[in-house]
Amino acid sequence: MVDVRIAESAAVRLPLAGWVDAPVNYLADLSIKPVTYNPPHGTGLPRRDGNYRDFTVRIHDARPITRDLSLDRQAFILTRHDTHVRDFYDEEEVRTKYHAEVEALIKRETGASKVVVFDHTVRTADRAVERGLRTPVRSVHNDYTEKSGPQRVRDLLPPEEAGRRLKKRFAEYNVWRNIDHEPIEMAPLGFVDSESIAPRDLAVCDLVYADRTGEIYQGVYNADHRWFYFPKMTRDEAILIKCYDSLKDGRARFSLHSAFDDPTSPANPRPRQSIEARAFAFFD
Which one has a higher pLDDT value, 15 or 208? Predict the structure, then answer.
């Protein structure tokens, strides 16, 4: 059974400030096995199998409690993070500049001895498909599973190093940020406090690509989930999301997140532009 949270008696109840009520897209149940079929970039939108439904949830403003958040309890944090990248749509600049910035950020926030940034995705709500980009993900999910986390390490590292690293603690983090020069108005990212996630809430979903099949977790609806977000994120902020942790000592190991429509957004919001970088952190 997947262990995702610390014992309820030890859970930290965060103080709640402002909130919005908004629909998010969950699996209602497991009557249909969830599968997502992903076409090549720029050729269309993903197609999904599964009994998905929108559920209205209360999403709390996490800005007043930013200092109380922990990667090992809630599985997400907000931090200030300046960047020297001028154009996030320039693939070469992102790989040469931003990956190094993300590596340094994760080392700073986690104390990892080695960080490998292996992927990034630029998303926009403005003509994404025709521009060869991806749209915001509007389903409650987590990027890695008990199986796919270690497998990705084996895919990335030489066999000898992978075997050595897999014997010690390692974790996968996503670093998410707004890449517009104005604050986000459309489709902000919401997060479930990992301490409110039960093992049954994580359903394995196959990700089918043209050349391979991977897997992620899709969230199954649970009325006990505690949702948070950071309104009006700016370009000098970053969110770290822990999507996998190999250590089974009671800390958060997985998380759930989704884009949603903020009812306080302007009537004609600027299309969201964002980037998420993915990285493994290895600990001695």
Answer: 208
